[in-house]
Each structure stands twice: as C-alpha cells, then as structure tokens.
Amino acid sequence: MKGTVTGGSNNIFTVECEDGIVRRCGIKGKKLKDSSGYYNPLAPGDMVTLEADALSGDCGKLTGILPRKNEFVRWNVKGRRPQLLAANLDYLICVTTPESPPFRPRFVDRMLIQADYAHIDPVILCNKSDLGFAPETEVRIAEWERLGYRVLRVSAKTGEGLPLLAALLEGKLSAFVGQSGVGKSSILNALDPNCALRTGELSEKYGRGTHTTTRGDLFHLTIAGVRASVIDTPGVRRFVLHDISAGDLALYFREMEPLIGSCSFGMSCSHEQEPGCKILEAVYSGVILEDRYVSWMRIREELAGNGWAD
Length: 310
Ligand code: GDP
Ligand code: ZN
What we know:
single chain; 310 residues; alpha/beta; six-stranded mixed sheet; five-stranded mixed barrel; 7 helices; 13 strands; 22% helix; binds guanosine-5'-diphosphate; binds zinc ion
C-alpha cells in the first residue's frame, strides 16, 4: 500500500494511506533508516510504501520510499547534519513581516536560495501588511519582484490578500517557513477556521511536537470547498543553507548569476576588491542592490566556515 507522510518523531511516522486510514508506522529494517544521511530519514510530504498491520487497524510498517520530486533541507547546526523539512512540494511559502518580528530580508534570501537550489517554486508572503511597510522594506520587496520572485502581501488580521493566497494554494502542496511569530498559524487559521492552530508568541507555545501526534505537520485546508495541502514547519531562528558551497553561492543570486565569469579575473575573482569586477561595478551602478550584495557576502562567509552572521 502507498501513503503520504504527514509527520513523525523518533522514527514513528504518521502516514495518510491510500485507503483513507491514518496509520502510525515504524520503519521496517535498517535500510530505510540509514539510507538518507539526513538527521531524519523521512519528512512530511514523503510518499512511502507500507505494510498495514493485520492486528491493529491504525498501525503499519514502512517498507520503502518513492522517488522525491524535491527535498527542502536546512543544515541543522545542533545535530550537525542536514535536516529534511519537507518533500515533494509545489510551493515554498516564505513568510515574513514588516515588523514584529522585525523584517529580516537576509533570512528570506536564505530560504529563496535553498528553494532555487531544490527546484521548488518559492513565494514570498509578507504578512501583517496592516502594519505598513517602511520605505527600505518596500525597496527590498520591489527588488525581489524585479528578480522574478512572486510576492504576496497579506494580513491574517484584516484578511487582505488572502483570496489570492487561497487561489495559489488550491490543489497544491505548500510548506510554510519562517521565523516564529511571523503569523504562519494565524494565516492558516484565517484560510480555514477548522484548522484551529495554536497561535501566540513563542513563549506561550509549546513548540514542536505537541500537535504532531494528532494532526501531523502536513494537513489539508478546505477553502471555499476546495482542498489545499500545507506543511507547517516549526519556526526556525536560524536558517543555514545546505549543500551549497561558498564558491557556488553567486549562482543562486539571480542578479549575480549572469555576471559570473565576466570579471577581469574570470572565475578566480572574489568580487570583493578586484579591478574589473563586474559584480562590484553592478553594485556601484545600482544594478545589484547593495543589501543583496551584503547578504551574499555574509552568507558566503558563513558557508566558508567563518561563523554565522545575519
Ligand atoms: P507563527 O509563530 O508564525 O505561527 O505566528 P502566530 O500565528 O502565532 O502569530 C504571532 C503573533 O502575530 C500573534 O500575536 C498574532 O495575533 C499576530 N499576527 C498574526 N498575523 C497578523 C497580522 O496579519 N497582523 C497583525 N497585526 N498581527 C498578526
Ligand atoms: Zn568579480
């Protein structure tokens, strides 16, 4: 039988099976457990094969995993291993806010880079638009739009922009990512009041794991009678890129990528001070937004192993 992983912890996964039953499943044998190199072998969105338990109706054993369309991964600093956050996504919804918590464009840049790397279509969702956007925030948002990223401005509080978001999500599998407090739960509740996710400040939350046993991290919204599948990822404070080298990072900055190799020093240019550097020239002439260049420099430093800065 086949099924979709909706959540799990400690190698027990909840799986929505094709017969409509949700089963709790362990992994059969060591092969699947050890095959990925990831912190966790399976994530919400994974399609699996399983054997249903003959004796208890809602248990089973996972026997295999179907090939993934894509994998959304971050580097888990504590676990020192890549962590698979979601699989088989149609959209990565990168949630941000103009304030409370403060606008952190470089955090969004990181998610966009990892999405482009994984060939997942990213969407920048600016929530709390009822709070208004500062001019420098507007500039940053306009730049993402110019680079071809899709940006939606919404407010879970006033409902602004939610019909557009709903139209995007319908019939798709989307993962919501962002810092704690940006309003992921509030948006999902506003789209479908039946989903009744717990909202509030971080200190009031129990964090990951409290709801996973009952509903899982992947669940379905019904919006005006139409179904959308979403994955609510735990709010992360840091988003560290996985499997992208410092040298390759510019490939994932859409405005830098076309200039790579055209500097006077060719591929050996570090784009920091060399004469004839096309990337620096583009920064000076405003073709590359300075804050995006700073973003690239800081992420590159981090990937080169020189610590983390945001
Ligand atoms: P999560 O950690 O990303 O799931 O964020 P929550 O959904 O728990 O929201 C965090 C806080 O932001 C709560 O106090 C919400 O009431 C508030 N909030 C969420 N969406 C909006 C919005 O659109 N506008 C405003 N002003 N506040 C919001
Ligand atoms: Zn250069």
